[in-house]
Amino acid sequence: MTKEVKKETASKEPKLLKSAEAKKLGGSKTKGLKAAETKKLPVSRSRAKKIKHSYPVQDPENSLLLKLKDGDVVIEMYPSAAPNHVARIKELVRAGFYNGLKFHRVIDGFMAQTGCPYGTGTGGSGKKLKAEFNTKPHKRGTVSMARAMDVDSADSQFFICFNDCDWLNGQYTVWGEVTSGMEHVDAIKRGDGMNGSVNDPDEIISMVVIADI
Q1: Does residue 21 register a pLDDT over 80?
Q2: Does residue 6 fall inside a structural domain?
Q3: 52's torsion region: left (phi>0), alpha (psi -120 to 50) or beta?
Q4: pLDDT one-digit tens code per residue, 173-192
Q5: Is residue 35 a part of any domain in this protein?
Q6: What is the CATH number for 99?
Q7: How many angstroms separate the Cα of 182 from the Cα of each of 1, 5, 140, 163?
Q8: For residues 185 and 160, is the Cβ–Cβ distance under 8 A?
Q9: Which of 137, 108, 143, 105 is CA-nearest to residue 121?
Q10: I want to staple 26 with a disulfide (CB 3.0 to 4.6 A). Which of 32, 79, 120, 176 is the partner?
Q11: Measuring CA to CA, how many Å separate 74 from each of 53, 66, 119?
Q12: Are 124 and 148 in contact (CB under 8 A)?
């Protein structure tokens, strides 16, 4: 059953997610992660430094460069608010896990969700994370973890908010914020299927830790 976040109802009451467990890929040692074996053209040290400095962030080790079809998106993470989630996201990013994954659920005015290796919202990396709910609000540009009904069921799926979503506050682990390129997130193809499912969805071209560029 799909890991989801729910859109605000008329009464603005928070809704829990569907209860069934998500399918796993492999075991707790993250079997099935995509190998980070993408060939790269050689880049000189000075060129690499220039590229890195083109993305001004407070902490390159805790910032991500998300490449979408329409342009680059910078996500600055919150290691103090969600240390275990940030550590796990970086581990998956460095393994190449997110490269090529689809934005399988996208609801206009709400959020874009990705991170399922099946492209259906039913899978993950095989390692669940204990919730790290914090005081960071769900606002435009917030990056937060999707989960099932169990609060400790977040894995690899996450969503980016298009607008403020206050009814989600305190129910999902916020681990980052888009600080550059939100217009490219806005351009992600919307879903017109049941519950925001997308036909021929957009994909993550690549995700890297900016310190690794």
Answers
A1: no
A2: no
A3: alpha
A4: 999 999 999 999 999 999 99
A5: no
A6: 2.40.100.10
A7: 30, 20, 9, 11
A8: yes
A9: 105
A10: 32
A11: 12, 6, 23
A12: no
Q: What is the pLDDT of residue 193?
A: 81
Quick: pLDDT tens for 115-163: 999 999 999 999 999 999 999 999 999 999 999 999 999 999 999 999 9
In a domain, 51, yes or no: no
List the domain range (segments joined by +) for residue 121.
62-212
DSSP one-letter code for 194: G
Cross-strand pairs, 73? 66
Q: How many other C-beta atoms are found inside a 10 Å radius of the C-beta of residue 159? A: 27
Please give the structure tokens belonging to residue 131: 């919730």
Residue with tokens 């001004």: 56
Interacting residues of 17 by C-beta distance below 8 A, sequence separation 6+: 3, 4, 5, 6, 146, 147, 148, 149
Tokens of 15: 């809704």
Query: d(Cα 143, Cα 161) in Å, to the nearest integer?
Result: 7
Average pLDDT on 160-174 reads 98
- The reply to whether the predicted model has a pTM over 0.70 is yes
In 3D space, the residue among 40, 89, 45, 84 whose CA is nearest the CA of residue 63 turns out to be 89
Question: What is the spatial distance between Cα 166 and Cα 148, in angstroms, rounded to a whole number?
Answer: 19
Question: What total number of domains does the chain contain?
Answer: 1
Paired tokens of 152:
């400790």
